[in-house]
Every structure is written in structure tokens, then in C-alpha cells.
Description:
Layout: H1 2-24, H2 29-32, H3 36-62, H4 64-75, H5 80-96, H6 103-130, H7 140-155
Amino acid sequence: xxxxxxxxxxxxxxLVVLAIAFGIFPFPPELIGKWSGLxxxxxxxxxxxxxxxxxxxxxxxxxxxxxxxxxxxxxKPFPKRIAEKIDALAHSFIDxxxxxxxxxxxxxxxxxxxxxxGTTLFPIWAAGKAFSIPGFNFGVADCFIIMAAGMVAAAIPxxxxxxxxxxx
Length: 168
């Protein structure tokens, strides 16, 4: 359950980073045409999706019994053996979400995520500055775009340490 929760929290953070990147990155209309206005709309959609997802996770913890009852209604048509396995997975998953039952723990988790992913921005910025192209100003918005792309690549199942997908 905790492994799944860690992946889900990372996925929600990816949505937030993409929203920030799409919100602050100047996508020039002359390069991408009619798509330039869609990036700001995508930022709003990502923030909304991330917020709804997070609220759904907190709901599952705070209303555990209701969540399990709703799951049992959904599982009625399934064979008993399959329903029992899904039920066990759901219990394990919700147990992994217990960290979300405390506002203080949510704040700590959020702060730790910001620190961890924030420290990722520095090497991206340093590499961008080291390999900069004359006349091209490598800024924070560029770092967010590259970090978001790396986060998406790392989410693709691969070898240890996301070797391969992240590097491509």
C-alpha cells in the first residue's frame, strides 16, 4: 500500500509541476501556433485533476468504512475469489494512505516533496547554464519543463533508478 501511495503522491506532484510549468513557460505562438493558448488551460486542468485526486485519497482515509462498503457494492458481480483479492488490496492501499489522516503530516509530506523535487531543479539549472546557447536565457520555467518531462519519463516502468527512460 505504501509503495502505491508513494507513486500516487509523485504522480500528483507531477501534475502540479506540469501546471506550474505550463502556467509560467512562455510558449511562443509563432513556434507552436494555435496550441499556445491550450497550455494555460492544461495547467488549470492539471491542478484540478491533482486536487480532486488528492481529495479522493483523503476521503478514502477519513471515510474508510464508506469506501469499503462502496467497493463491496462494486465487487458483487465478481467471483468471490477475485473480489477477496481486490478487497485485500483495497485494505492495504487505504492503510498506506493513513499518513493523509493528519493535516500536520500532510504539511510535512508536502514540504518534504517540495524539498526533494526542489533540489532536482538545481542540477537541471546548472546543466542548462553549463551548456547554454548564446542568446538563449535558460530560466526557472525551462527547469520546470525539463523536470516535468523527466518525472513523466521516470514514471514509465524501466530498470533500476529509471535508467533508460529518464535519460532518453
